[in-house]
Amino acid sequence: MKLLELHIDGFGKFHDQTFVFHDGINVIYGKNEAGKSTLHTFIRSMLFGIERGVRQIFMLLGRDTSQALGSIGVAPANIEVVTSTLAVISIVAATMIFMSEKELSSNWGAVPVTPETQSSLPAEPRSKTPAEKKHELATRVATVAREYKLSTREEEVLLLLGQRKTVGIIERELFIANGTAKAHVRHIYQKLDIHTRQELFDMLGVETEHESNKQSSTSL
Fold first, then answer.
1. Rounded to whole angstroms, how far apart are CA atoms 170 and 158?
2. Could you report the per-residue pLDDT of 110-151, keeping only the tens digit for each?
3. Of 33, 93, 166, 220, whose CA is between 20 and 30 Å from 76?
4. CA 75 – CA 21 distance, rounded (Å)
């Protein structure tokens, strides 16, 4: 397959941009954060797989793949192959989105509590919802970022670290190279004067896995 042209309507940092390729080898280069990894992820997502970011874009106002992401110009002999590939990707993406919904279940019954039994029930502390925990973490991250003068990108990386995301997940979610993600993590540790992930969790007030599991067991 020969790529002739890329048009990106909206993907990562690129919006309404066109890239034209010429015969022979085309070299794409630039500084960190220039968009090299984003461009690579766009091509890979359009042709070979569904990245997390692509699945989210599929949900934008019901637009199809080519409208939400952009288009790839290929040699005429391969247009049918690419069209078939994108059709399969669309079906797989729709299935994954449908099957990944985890908030569809609800309680279908309730145990009646009379005034007599209600007074005898021990008062239990209400556990925080995932949304509340996420909001509190974002607030703490913003406070730490201001105090230690982190850059905007470092603040984004710190938030993902606080969510226990690995470097591999961070690079995919932010569309950056693995080396760039590791450099951001190293700079964050240096600015915060910490050396371990546990120290970072303590600074952000993130529960350990043991505490989280214990709290979940108590709520059950």
1. 10
2. 555 566 656 665 666 677 788 888 899 999 999 999 999 999
3. 93
4. 11
Percent of the chain with pLDDT over 90: 31
* H-state helical runs in the chain: 36-47, 52-57, 65-68, 79-99, 115-120, 130-147, 152-162, 167-174, 178-192, 197-204, 209-219
> For residues 220 and 210, what is the distance between their CA atoms, to the nearest angstrom?
16
- Site of tokens 């630039």: 30
Residue 177 CB neighbours (<10 A) = 16
Residues 6+ apart with CB under 8 A from 42: 6, 8, 11, 12, 14, 69, 70
* Range 192-218 burial, b when 16+ CB lie within 10 A, else e: beeeeeeebbebbebeeeeeeeeeeee
Nearest alpha carbon to residue 203 among 154, 134, 147, 120: 147
